[in-house]
Amino acid sequence: MSDEDLGAIFPRDPDDDTPRLECGVFGVFEQAGAAAITALGLHALQHRGQEACGIATFDGQRFHTERHMGYVGDAFAGHDLVDRLPGHTAIGHTRYSTAGGSFLRNIQPMFADLEAGGVALAHNGNLTNFLTLREQLVAEGAIFQSTSDSEVILHLLARSRRGRVVERFIDALSQIEGGYALVAMTNKKLIGVRDPLGIRPLVLGELDGKAVLASETCALDMIGAQFIRDIEHGEMVVIDQDGIESLRPFPAARARPCIFEYVYFARPDSVVNGRSVYEVRKRMGRRLAQETAVDVDVVVPVPDSGVPAALGFAQETNRPFEMGIIRNHYVGRTFIQPTQGARETGVRMKLSPNRSVLAGKRVMLIDDSVVRGTNSVRVVRMVREAGAAEVHLRSASPPIQWPDYYGIDMPDRDKLLAANMTIPEMAKFLGVDSMGFLSVDGLYWAMDAGPRDPVNPQFTDHYFTGDYPTRLLDREIAEGRNEAVERQLSFLVDA
C-alpha cells in the first residue's frame, strides 16, 4: 500500500500544526436522564475531539443513537434531549479523525445488531493492525459502512463463535493491536476496556451509587461524580445490575501510559494515572528553565496549553509571567484557506498580541510542543510585529522526532521540524533569538518518575525516542510493499 493510499485513510489537514488526539469516551449506567448526563460528560471532554460527537442510549427495549458533526453544545442542546434519546444507560464519544475521514458515517458510537443482541461502541485510540484486519474481513465477505478502525471491532464481535457477549469481546480484543480505551453498551451491560499497556486513559467513577466511565477525571467533575480509580492497563470492567466485575483478558505486561497526555492532551484539571496534569506541566516549566534559561524581561505562554509550563518557568527564573498573547475562545478549528494571507488571518482570529506586555521587551515564549513549526513561525512574527526587542522560544516537551500511530494525528517524519533540523537551524527557521527544548530526562523528572529506563521505559514516549511500545503491523506491511515496488523499479532501470 502506498503512502497516498495510507493518506486517504489517515488524512491530515495540511495547514494544521497542532497535535490532535482522536477522541474522548464516556459512559453511564442506570441513571435517569442518561443522555443529558452523557452530554455534560462529553462537553468536559470536548478538548479531545472537536469535529464530531455522538450519544447512544438504551431504554430497556430499544437502542437510540444520534451522531452529529460539530461541537457537543451545538449537537445536544435543548430540553428535548432526553426525549430524543430516552434510556437509563448511555455511552458517548467526541471525535477528531485520525483513522478515517471527517464523515458522518465515521462518527461514534457505532451500533450493530448482532446475534447476541445490540451493541454500541465508542473507541479512543488507533489499532495498528486495522488495515490488515480490515482487508482480511473484506476478503471473507464483510461489508464495511465506514472507514473507521472502530468498525473492525464490531465485525470481530459479530464473527466470534463465543457464546456470551463478554467472551465475544475478549475474543475480538485478542485480535487487535495498538493503543485504545473503549466503552461499549449492550442491553444489560456497560463495558470498559483499556489496552494491555494502558497507552490511552480510562477512569472509573461513581454517581449516586452507579458506575461511570470516562477518558478523564474532568468529565467526572462536570457531572458531580466521585473518582474511584483508573481502569488499569489490560483491564476489562463489566458493569451490570450485579455490580462491577474486573477481568484480565490479556497476557500480563508492564504499563506504558502515553506521556503526551501530560504534555498536551489532557485537561490541566484532570488527574491521569494518579498525577495532576497541571502540576506536572508546571514542573515541566521549572525543569525547562533549569535546562535552557536565558536573561529575559517577561515569560509569555502560547495559550492555552503552554500556560502551566510558563508559570513554572517564570517562578523558577523569578521573571514576571504575563499574558502577552490573548486567545479568542469563540473561534472554531482553523479552516484551510487557499492563500497565505487568508491563513495568517485565520491565525490572528485565534491569537492576538498584547502589545502593552510585548513592546520593547525581551520575551520568552513557552509552548507545549513544536511539531512542524508553521504555527510557531506565525506566533513569533506576531510577537515581533508587536514590538518585542527579542523573542526566545522554549518547548515544554522534548523535540518531536517520530510520528504516532496510537491515536495522535501527527505528520510523517519528514514533516517533523526536529527530525530534520538542528536546534540552531530551527531557531533560524522560526525567526527566534534562541530555541530550546525540555530534555527527555527532564520530562521524566517532571513526572516524578525517576530517570528513564532505556530497557523498560515507564511511559509511551516514542514521539521523542523512536521507541514504539507495540508492533506497527500496518506500517510494516505498507513499507514492505513500497520496498518491493522500489526493487521492481530499480530492476527495470538497471535492465
What this model shows, in words?
- This protein is α+β, with helices and mostly antiparallel strands and 495 residues long.
- It folds into 2 domains: 8-256, Aminohydrolase, N-terminal nucleophile (Ntn) domain (Glutamine Phosphoribosylpyrophosphate, subunit 1, domain 1), CATH 3.60.20; 277-465, Rossmann fold.
- A 7-stranded antiparallel β-sheet has the order 4-3-5-2-11-10-12, covered by helices on one side.
- Helix 6 packs across helix 7 and helix 10 (277-292) crosses helix 17.
- The longest helix has 22 residues, at 473-494.
Radius of gyration in whole Å, from Cα? 23 Å
**General form:** globular
The number of strands is 23
So what's the CATH class of the largest domain? Alpha Beta
Task: State the end-to-end distance.
Answer: 25 Å
- What is the strand arrangement across the widest sheet? 4-3-5-2-11-10-12
How much of the sequence lies in strands comes to: 15-25%
Major β-sheet, in short?
7 strands, antiparallel
Oligomer: single chain
Q: Please, what is the CATH homologous superfamily of the largest domain?
A: Aminohydrolase, N-terminal nucleophile (Ntn) domain
Helix fraction by DSSP (H/I, runs of at least 4): 25-40%
> Counting H and I runs of at least 4 residues, what is the number of helices?
19
Task: Give the rounded overall mean pLDDT.
Answer: 89
Number of structural domains: 2
Q: Which regions are unreliable across 5 or more consecutive residues at pLDDT < 50?
A: 1-15, 333-343, 485-495
What CATH architecture label of the largest domain applies? 4-Layer Sandwich
**CATH fold group of the largest domain:** Glutamine Phosphoribosylpyrophosphate, subunit 1, domain 1
